[in-house]
């Protein structure tokens, strides 16, 4: 076949393809290849015809042979791209990407529009495969090409926005190069907008700041973007909210953070984040009740700041609201989510706070829950303070051997740690080894002199060690005073101060003040409340006694605060107000229906009121609960006599005389 015949055969093949006669085209091409086996056009036409005849492998082979012959010719690459783009071609996306890359190279110096078309296809392909770095780099090349062509600012702005859209899901990949390209796209987009300021530009800035806030290491860039946005949009609170959130998450409130908080609250007094930052400021300034109030209010207004739950728990611990603090810790853990990523340090802090708080609650169930919390702390075994907390949890649970083992290990490995000596002290104290406990707590106090709990336990050690140390002003009293000074919310310190002033110093007035303070700090502390009321009565100050009792009974839920109802009922009984006494004693019995003394007192109140039948039932009930209450039996007999039930009365009197022959009231009756 001559050169002229080869050309004629290729023309016939091209015409056959145009007429969709693909098999005919193949015949012509094969004839050419018999004569010229390296004929580029023949291989390209075979690829095209085979593709149309749905023979993809033959088509692919033909195109690759053509490429091998002429690697910088367009036709074969275009044909291969068309083949790979067909819907029935699967698992060839990597190959297609390579083809597009070659086409970009070939189109670059020629047909710009085709270059843009292929570039768009390549970006779409990378995007489908979530290859975000390749997406970013390829799209940036497209923008660069447009810039070289002198594209308008508006067109470039739209291209930067498109790049942002393409990369919006890439922030989860933790790829620094992609991240930098995305942030660069944002910076170009916000700087190339037509209308500044404007609504679209403002929303774009918000998206930029939101994106920056996902990267903890971009703090400086975040602050700059927020300040730039505030300069353009001085009435919008969004950048200030983001900055407040950033400062809270960073874990330290600087003057800059407080300035942001002030500006935010000036702009929007109901801003949840602003109120939260103010609450954290109160916590740092040891204004714990204000901190609890502000943090609670802020958390009701926003769910954007899970760390605030930790700060709330911390503030609640400071005022000894331990059960509330545990609930706050649980809220924090739920809000922080999985134990991974940037929230991990916060999770560890919350779990440690939860464990410490549960130990302060003191019972075995709380100790078990504390151990579970400690087990979730990442790298807990390397933290001696966490180990000391675990030792306390074992001690509260009654696992003395495990607690002692941890104590011994800590004293060997961390002899300068206050917590090591404190744990040893708690163990000795629980075993009533007071002399050893004293040494341990003195060591703990030496290392951490500002910890109220250590002074409190040292004071308790002296209180129970001996009468001499209990009475020595330089021992128990001094330590309780230090504890109360260091922690003005530590109710138990004030309770023991009350004990000292009442039992040792004989100063009833000062003792009452201490008991009252202890009770104000912890209204569940019945012992302090009772002591404050009893001393008020002894001091002849019934107004104070009644004030305390009225406060408690007003707040009490049904079936609670028995001691207060009983005390007030006795007061009314003594002061000739039997109806009020009846009401209060009934409330006391709702809290403890099996208190025989309370039933006896209720009988007395009914008797004084003239309700003889009901009084008789009350005395009978007291006797059922405690057959040894002779007075109740006598009162029952006397009431039967008053009610004319003489035979019953005689039998009851005889019942008393069997137990007490010389019980005069019964003989008289």
TrEMBL record:
The keyword Cell membrane does not apply. It holds the Pfam family TPR_16. InterPro entries: Ski3/TTC37, TPR-like_helical_dom_sf, TPR_rpt. TPR repeats lie at residues 40-73, 418-451, 562-595, 596-629. One of its GO terms (biological process) is RNA catabolic process. One of its GO terms (cellular component) is Ski complex. Residues 3-39 form a coiled coil. Keywords: Coiled coil, Repeat, TPR repeat. PROSITE patterns: TPR, TPR_REGION. This is TTC37 protein. The lineage of its organism: Eukaryota, Metazoa, Chordata, Craniata, Vertebrata. The gene is Ttc37.
